[in-house]
Each structure stands twice: as C-alpha cells, then as structure tokens.
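Ligand: flavin-adenine dinucleotide. Inputs:
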Amino acid sequence: MYYDVIVVGGGPGGLPTAIAAARAGMKTLVIERSSALGGLAISGLPLLGYVDRAGNHVLGGIPQEFVDRMEKVNGTLGHVRCPIHNSLTIINPNWFRVTAFEMCEEAGVDVLLYSELMDVQTEEGKITRVTAFCRGEKRSFEAKIVIDATGDACVAALAGAWYEKNEKLMPPSLTFMIGNVKIGEFLDYLEKHPESAELPDTYGMKQTKEQFFDSVAFTFTGFAELIEKARENGDYKLPRDRIIFMKMGEPGQVMVNTTRVNDVDTSDLDDVIRGEFACHKQVKELMHFFKTYAPGFEDCFLASISPCLGSRESRRIVGEKTLTGEALENCDIPPDTVVLAGYNVDVHVPGTERLSLQPVRHAIGIPYGCLVSKNVPNLMVAGRCASVASDIYGLTRIMGTCMGMGEAAGTAAAMAVEQGVMPKDVDVRKLRERIVKNGGIVKL
Ligand SMILES: Cc1cc2nc3c(=O)[nH]c(=O)nc-3n(C[C@H](O)[C@H](O)[C@H](O)COP(=O)(O)OP(=O)(O)OC[C@H]3O[C@@H](n4cnc5c(N)ncnc54)[C@H](O)[C@@H]3O)c2cc1C
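Predicted complex:
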C-alpha cells in the first residue's frame, strides 16, 4: 500500500505529525507498537513546555488543541504556573488517550496499532518501503516521506541515518499512580516541616510555599529526611535522593516519578527488560516507603503502573541542523524557528541519584533543520530523537515541545509532498507562515 507520509510512533511527537499531515490532505499512516495512541502522554505525567519562565505562552496549534479538547471533558487542570517547571499541565491520561483517537480519526489518519517497525528498505539512500510486524503478520508500505517519532530513532537506525548516542545516558524510570492519598495531611506535614521541600543546589531554583498551598496542581520534590530514615532502617535502596510526585486532578490521586535504573539504554532490548524488572521491584519498595514513612500516605494503594519503562534519552538523529547549548547564551530564536522550547535544561545525571535543573529565562527556537535527517533525504523526525546536542537536550525532550515539533514536521512533510521536493528544500518562511496560520507559535 502507498502513503504520502508514514509516521512511526504514535506518542507526543508522532500524533501531531500525523494529524498535521492528514489535515493538509496527505494520505497518512501511523505505525504504533502498543494498543493505544499517546506514548508517554498516557502514563499520567503532566505536559510541560506550554509556558516559558517569563510567562509567555509558547505552544499553540495542535498541542494547545489537545489541551482545549481535554478541558471540555474535565480531563485537564489547564496550564498552572510552577516555580520549577514554569508550567504544569496536569492531564488525566485516559482523556489524552481518548482525545488522540478522536483527533486521528477526524483528521483521516490511518492508524496501525499493535504493529512494531520491522524493516526499512532504501534505494539510493532514500527510504522506499517500511515494513511492520502487525500482530502476527508482516505488512509493507511505500512512502514518500517517513517520520521517525519512535523516541529511540528506530527508523533512523534501520535506514542508515546518522545518529548520536551518549555513552552515559539519562536513566529511564517507570512511573506509577497511587490512590487514597490524604493530601491535606501531607500539606499539614509540609507546613510543619518546610525543610522537606528543600532542593539540592543542582536544581538552580527553589520550591515555594504557594506552589503547594495556593495551587490546584503541584509537583513535590523532597522527603530527603524521610529517605534518610528509611535508609537507616534498610527500607530504601533506590538510587534517588528525592521523591517526586504530582498531585493529579482526581481526589486523592498522585503520580510517582521516582523509580530509576542507571546504565540502561532503552534502544537495547536486553537493557529494557532488565530495567523493567528493576523498576517493578522499586515500585514495591516505594509503596512500602509511602505507607510506612510518608504522612498522608498510610492508607494509599497502588492504582496503576505505566504500561512501559519511560525513556529519557537514547539515540538522537544528526539533522541538517543541530540545536546546541550555544543557543542558551542569548536565548536564541533564529529566523528558521518552527517551534519554541519553553522549558529548563532538566537532566537526570547519569549514574547518580541526582537531578540538575538549569533555569532558562525564556523560550528558545528550534530550527527546522533539527527535524530533517542529514543523510537520508526523505526521513524526518519529531519528538525526543530530534537533532539536539546533549548539552541542551534536557530542554527539548519534554512532551509539549515534542508535540510542537510534531506539528512542524507534519506540516513540512505535507509541503514537501505538495511541491514534489525533499524536506530539506521546503521553504522555511512559507512553512512558518502555515504553522502560524494553523495556530502555532514561532516567535515571542
Ligand atoms: C520518567 C519520565 C518522566 C518524564 N516526565 C515528564 C513530564 O513530567 N512532562 C513532560 O512533558 N515530559 C516528561 N518526560 C519526557 C517525555 O515524556 C518524553 O521525552 C516524550 O514523551 C517523548 O515523546 P516521543 O513522542 O518522542 O516519545 P514517546 O513518548 O516515547 O513515544 C514514542 C511512541 O513510539 C512508539 N514506538 C517506539 N518504538 C516503536 C517501534 N519500533 N515501532 C512502532 N512504534 C514504536 C511507542 O510505543 C510510543 O507510543 C519524562 C520522561 C520520562 C522517561
């Protein structure tokens, strides 16, 4: 079967890509290995990146449309200011999932679920065919443009596209949800023990009282003193110096982002399996910790575990352009910007217990060339495997920004097909005009 645009991966990067391409009239296919659309956005993590540190709203278009639609069904608390993350967009992951199906169907995207990328055929350096293993059978498709939104750059690796991968990678984590937490009791404890929310120097910013007491949504990072106690009792062995959880929109529910397994490369199957085993063990350890040590958590229960180990970092393609840390010096927004990245440089330091957060005063621009492979002419990328150097990667890997990249990549792919050119030859000025016409934001 023939497609104008094939998107591999139906997560935050892939969904807006496919929707934008299909809305532009392209025959579009998404190949997704799991049973649902959404990738890590259906794990319960908040969407980050919509509002920058200076308070500018930096994502419109399809990323904002997701939030607007979820607002209509009480599936999100909207964008809430946060002194650490700039903004938190807490979502009910089930509504993200429903919304993703709805938007793909309305746009006319063909969605191939339960289908894992198997092979990529190339001729004269261009991808001609994509093959997937689809619930027991092999299916093959021709495509003009292929967009890698797998997170791990699986298409790029199979197609011989150049990519980079750090020797030491940020550790993956398995997130989980717990219910029946007495938030009031937790807040009482925090009122009496404000030191519990003190952050190490590597954060470069501080949590505030208002963040917890005056806000409908928050992320808490702390409990160092309780971890110390649990360690003394032999109840805490995790390589993590702080507990991180988010208060969800639903009563008594929090999402925990604290498991961590070092030295796991999520583009390696054996590593991933090892990581899954280690993190499932940590879920049990953390549940014991919460019930035994954390005020307000005594009667909590394990409500759900994210469907898969979440990857922070693996392969990144080498693009026509690469965003590097230099962009941070002046908070650059170059003229070929197609999406604004409005977060901070957030790094889970490989091989350690630590996290480091470098505040960025306002959004910077991601140039179009970061979404276009340098050596495979009809391969593009959207999401965390875009062409971004490791010194600034902690800024662009978050879901809101990945969604913005997706809308830009899908729009560009459609323009390339319409004009019969390769993605690198798309007129960036016209691309930006089209992104803005569709509600996207490319400058402050
Ligand atoms: C523990 C953790 C906490 C995080 N916290 C936050 C947070 O609070 N807020 C935030 O905004 N970001 C957060 N991030 C970052 C963010 O979640 C990811 O960087 C983002 O989801 C990347 O989007 P993506 O579409 O590139 O990849 P993914 O979300 O991983 O989606 C990739 C999709 O491709 C599919 N896929 C992969 N390989 C194949 C294949 N070979 N064949 C077919 N389909 C395939 C997957 O099933 C998946 O649906 C966190 C990440 C982790 C790991």
